[in-house]
């Protein structure tokens, strides 16, 4: 049964949480577009495509926005209650800190569950759609834009240069068109004036050229005898296909096997398959070496190999001197082939092991980012009750500090996993392992009304220590050096 105290705490928490969640979401989306601004500008994207990109980006940053929103809103909630002395009234009624933390603690656990469901089911789809859309946008050619005095080369097979554009942006002067047909000589069209028109469906560009010449040279590259044609015209119509500049959507199947696009169940299957890499490569190496080194197949486990010198002496006794040179050449050739084969196998093995680490990292990350909501609540709630400051000022400072710590530890852990410095379970849970003890410590301090962040406490402490410090300075100054 929800009591009045629980309603009071929840009501104080919901407003700041919703506000901080959407503010955080907005900032993280802006960060994404700031990183990819060069790939989006000048592509002539329509509003639907831009809106689609914003939607997918917002969905992919939700796992990061939720913990930060929980941290900041919990600090603000308990800071406001402390600033208005409501915490003092609650404690004076004999209600312990953990009791009035309980309603938000339950909410944090529910948010952790919601975050896991989002990470497991919606995030893979969002990552898939975003990567496909980002790939299409990055690979899309810039929108058609003729500039005075420079060549436009984004239409395949053509280079177009315009000397001057009139104010209506349709009438052009001093037009040069190079038509690349990859023969001995490119075709060239020169016109004094032209009128440009783009079709309504943006698929074709029509040039109506006036007072110009068309130069064509026919012949093959292997023959220097060519036919040169010069054609003058009063009016000439040239049509260009703009389909290469259009926005083409790639199939989602191109990215569906990436570890970021998989759910926990799919990751389990992929990890189980990749975990057999040791057995597969052991058999592969055995088969490949056995092809070139025949005795490898018949080696006995109890066989003790001779030393290099003893082996060389025994071979000299068996093989005639006349065959030593050819034998050495053949041995070196076989060893070179074995070395190349092993290097290829080694590279393949390292790639498989890296893929296994990345899949395990994605599996742990789905749980770690969900639990982060509860972990940062353990820091935010007692921190707010200690600092006893509401609003957006002081709570924001502390929230940013702890979130930066969480963000850096999380990124360092992922980097260590990718570089095979740490196991996935340690790298991905590094931030949790560090922040949970801090949260427990802050809760312990808050339960005992600690003045950990009260500047007045440190000021009074320093005033008490000042006489002792001055006395110590006098004693140390009284001792004269010999």
UniProtKB/TrEMBL annotation:
The chain crosses the membrane at residues 12-34, 54-79, 100-123, 367-387, 394-413, 425-444. Its main location: membrane. It is a multi-pass membrane protein. It is found in: Cell membrane. The keyword Transmembrane helix applies. Keywords: Cell membrane, Membrane, Transmembrane, Transmembrane helix. It holds the Pfam family LptF_LptG. InterPro entries: LptG/LptF_permease (IPR005495). The keyword Transmembrane helix applies. PANTHER family: SLR0882 PROTEIN-RELATED, YJGP_YJGQ FAMILY PERMEASE. This is LptF/LptG family permease. It comes from Flavihumibacter fluminis.
């Amino acid at each position: 049964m929800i009591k009045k105290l629980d309603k009071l705490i929840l009501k104080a928490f919901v407003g700041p949480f919703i506000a901080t969640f959407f503010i955080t979401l907005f900032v993280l989306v802006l960060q994404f577009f700031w990183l990819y601004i060069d790939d989006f500008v000048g592509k002539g994207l329509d509003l639907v495509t831009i809106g689609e990109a914003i939607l997918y980006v917002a969905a992919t940053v939700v796992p990061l926005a939720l913990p930060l929103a929980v941290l900041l809103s919990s600090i603000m909630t308990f800071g406001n209650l402390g600033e208005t002395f409501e915490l003092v009234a609650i404690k004076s009624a004999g209600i312990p800190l953990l009791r009035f933390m309980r309603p938000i603690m339950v909410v944090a656990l529910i948010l952790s569950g919601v975050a896991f469901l989002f990470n497991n089911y919606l995030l893979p789809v969002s990552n898939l759609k975003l990567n496909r859309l980002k790939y299409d946008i990055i690979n899309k050619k810039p929108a058609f834009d003729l500039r005075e005095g420079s060549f436009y080369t984004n239409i395949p097979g053509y280079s177009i240069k315009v000397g001057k554009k009139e104010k209506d942006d349709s009438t052009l002067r001093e037009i040069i068109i190079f038509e690349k047909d990859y023969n001995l000589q490119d075709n060239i069209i020169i016109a004094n004036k032209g009128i440009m028109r783009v079709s309504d469906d943006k698929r074709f560009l029509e040039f109506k050229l006036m007072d110009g010449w068309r130069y064509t040279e026919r012949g093959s590259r292997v023959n220097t005898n060519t036919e040169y044609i010069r054609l003058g015209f009063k009016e000439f119509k040239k049509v260009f296909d703009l389909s290469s500049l259009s926005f083409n959507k790639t199939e989602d199947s191109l990215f569906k096997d990436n570890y970021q696009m998989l759910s926990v169940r799919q990751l389990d299957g992929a990890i189980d398959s990749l975990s057999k890499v040791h057995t597969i490569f052991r058999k592969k190496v055995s088969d490949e070496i056995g092809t070139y080194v025949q005795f490898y197949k018949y080696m006995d486990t109890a066989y003790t190999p001779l030393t290099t010198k003893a082996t060389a002496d025994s071979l000299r006794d068996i093989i005639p001197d006349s065959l030593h040179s050819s034998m050495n050449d053949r041995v070196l050739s076989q060893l070179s082939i074995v070395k190349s084969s092993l290097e290829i196998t080694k590279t393949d093995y390292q790639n498989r092991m890296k893929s296994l680490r990345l899949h395990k990292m994605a599996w742990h990350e789905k749980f770690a980012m969900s639990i982060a909501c509860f972990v940062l609540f353990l820091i935010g709630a007692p921190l707010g009750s200690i600092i006893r400051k509401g609003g957006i000022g002081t709570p924001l400072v502390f929230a940013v500090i702890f979130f930066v710590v969480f963000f850096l530890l999380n990124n360092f852990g992922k980097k260590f996993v990718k570089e095979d410095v740490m196991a996935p379970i340690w790298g991905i849970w590094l931030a949790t392992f560090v922040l949970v003890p801090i949260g427990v410590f802050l809760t312990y301090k808050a339960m005992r009304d600690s003045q950990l962040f009260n500047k007045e406490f440190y000021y009074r402490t320093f005033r008490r220590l000042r006489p002792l410090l001055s006395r110590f300075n006098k004693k140390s100054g009284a001792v004269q050096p010999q």
